[in-house]
Write a structure and sequence with these properties.
globular, binds zinc ion, alpha+beta
Length: 69
Amino acid sequence: MDAQTIKAVIALCQSQTGVDYTRRHGAICPLCGTPRAWVRRTMPWNGKIRERYHKCRKCGFNFKSVETE
Ligand SMILES: [Zn+2]
């Protein structure tokens, strides 16, 4: 696998487990690193975590983020 493929595999993995969501940067695309991805869906708080579904405004990558209290 070349570096680009490895990067894509890591991004895909992170898109399923969820990247960190911060109030300051929103969700950062795991594929291209663009901050503040569009929020497609916000889930209610589930205990101490909240999940959001995003689409990157630059590369169009779909991924999940996790916000913790
Ligand atoms: Zn992206």
